[in-house]
Amino acid sequence: MSMQAVHPDELFNGYVGAHVAYAFQQIGLFSVLTPNIRRKPHDIAARTGLDLPRLQALLKAGHELGYIASHADGSVSVSEMGEILRGQLGYFTWAVGGYGDLLRSMGRLTTGKETWKPLRNEGMVALGADMNHRSFMEHILFDVLDHLSCHRIADFGCGNGGRLISFCQRYPHIKGVGIDISTDAITLARENVKQHGLEDRLEMICTNVLETIQTDRYKELLAGVDLVSSFMMLHDLYNIPSVWPRLFDHLREAFPGVKHFLFADTVRMPPTEERSTLPIFAVGYELLHSYMDVCLPTKAEYDAAFVRAGLTIEMCADFGTPYTYLYLLRV
Fold it and tell me: What is the pTM of this model?
C-alpha cells in the first residue's frame, strides 16, 4: 500500500485551521453555537465579551474551512463538519495549546542544545486529554467499569481529574486518588474536584508516580485501592530501564488490595507500507515523543510485557484515538 502525499496547500490551510479550531475552544464558541442554533455575530460577541470585528474574521475563516455555516439573515451556525470538529476539539487543545510552542521550535530543538520541557503547556495537555476522554473514550470505559466490582481507584497521570470525576458521578460508591507529577495539572484537578463537590471522595496528589509506588510515603492512602488505572502514561515508564522490568511487581507491592489494572496507551504506528491513510493525531503524537526522547512501544510489545509480568489480559479494545488501546488486566 502507498499513502497519498499531503499537498502543500492542504498542509498550510490545515495549519491555519488547527489554530482556528483552538481559538473556537478558547472563546467557548461551541458553548454558544449549540447544535441546531443560529446566532448573529453581534449576539455572540455580546454573550462572550469578544471584539466583534475580530470575531467576524474568525467566523469567516471558519466558514472558509467549512466548519461554520452562514445564512441569508446574517446569522451563523455550526456546519455538519463543524459538529465533527466539536467532538474532536480536544486534539487541537492538546496540540496547539499544549504543544504549540514545542512544535514551532522543532527546528532549533533539532540541534540538541535546548530542552523541550519549558515549551510544553501541561495544563492544556491535561485539558485536551480530558476533552477527548469525554467525547469518545468515556463510554468505552463505562462499558468496562459497569461490569467490574471496584470501590477505590488510583489513577496515575490523572491530568485535570476529569476521569476520576466522571467515575464518581456514575458510580456513587467509588472513591479515588489522582496522582500526577505536573503542578499545573494537579492545580486544575483540585479546582475541578472542588467545583463538583467531590472533596470527600477524591484526593489529588502532586508527585512522581515512582515516589508513590517505590516508597512507603503514601502507603496508608493506597492500601484500600482495588483498581489501578493509567491513561496515556505507560510509555513514559516503559522508557525507564531501571523501572519497567519491575514495574508491575512494584504496583502489586504498593497496592496490596489491587485486583485489576486498567491501562490505555497509544502505540507506535505500523510501517507506512501497511497503512493506506494517515489518521488524526498519530503522526503528531509520535513526532513529539521522539523530540521528548520517548520511544513508543508497539502493541505486540505491550502484550508480551503484560504476559511476562504474570498478568491476564481480560480485555483489549480500541480506545477512540487511532492506535490507542484499552487493557483490562487481572492481577
Answer: 0.90
